[in-house]
């Protein structure tokens, strides 16, 4: 549900990943470039990373709204309490984007490092469908609030060390991510977008399931989220068929 990929990479390299990957972008310029592509199993997003001053200052509501008409996926958006970008500028960008997304639902990957409470407040003020909390580090009370807001959670290899957090997440609200090349540094050899084996094994161990059962649940979760956010029409037909088969 969240990886960073160079938008100039060859399509054959992406096909070789053998995974459905949602590729987050960090600026509207990067999104513009990425959305020209027509990859088989990679869905490119529209993002404005809260850690990038230039991206935040260049954010334009009309341009954002136009770009998301071309994809089911928005990411990476959010708030970062350790960013050098002023939090009020980050909040202005996020709130503007959420206002658009309230009218035009998408799958939305949200960053909340050191700003989990602030992000939840923004979602409470402007509720949206399709919210996925990427690399979530909120406390139990915040996690419960996020669940009540309808959020899903995407887990990467780095998060598998936080079993206290994983234990709070219902199996039907969990998705996987790599956040390549950042969130999978602990995964060892074979690090690449779409390689979520470390996460699948950790979830299987935690819940007493086999890995195939976990993978089937993850696909069902994605199918449910796509249905709730009414974003199936933005996905290629073969992905829609794969999601239908998972239900």
Question: Care to describe what's here?
Answer:
The chain is of the alpha/beta class and 247 residues long. The chain has one domain: TIM Barrel, CATH 3.20.20. 43% of the residues lie in helices and 11% in strands. It is built from eleven helices and seven strands. The chain has helices at residues 11-15, 28-34, 53-58, 61-67, 87-103, 116-125, 140-148, 163-166, 197-207, 211-229, 237-246; strands spanning 21-23, 42-44, 73-78, 107-111, 131-134, 152-155, 174-176. The strands form two sheets. It has a five-stranded parallel sheet, with helices on both faces. A two-stranded parallel sheet has the order 1-2. α7 links the parallel β5 (131-134) and β6. α9 (197-207) crosses α10. The longest helix has 19 residues, at 211-229. The protein is globular, with a radius of gyration of 17 Å. It starts with 10 loop residues before the first helix and ends with a helix. The mean pLDDT is 96.
Key features?
247 residues; TIM Barrel; five-stranded parallel sheet; 7 strands
User: How many distinct beta strands?
Assistant: 7
Q: Oligomer, anyone? A: single chain
The named CATH superfamily: Metal-dependent hydrolases
Q: Tell me the name of the CATH class.
A: Alpha Beta
Approximate strand percentage: 5-15%
Helix content: 40-55%
CATH topological fold name: TIM Barrel
SSE order, as H and E? HEHEHHEHEHEHEHEHHH
Which architecture does the CATH hierarchy give at level 2? Alpha-Beta Barrel
For the largest sheet, list the strands in their spatial order.
3-4-5-6-7
| Low-confidence spans | none
End-to-end separation in angstroms reads: 18 Å
Overall pLDDT level: 96
Number of domains: 1
Structural class: alpha/beta
Radius of gyration: 17 Å
Helical region count?
Answer: 11
Shape: globular
Q: For the report, how would you describe the main beta sheet? A: 5 strands, parallel
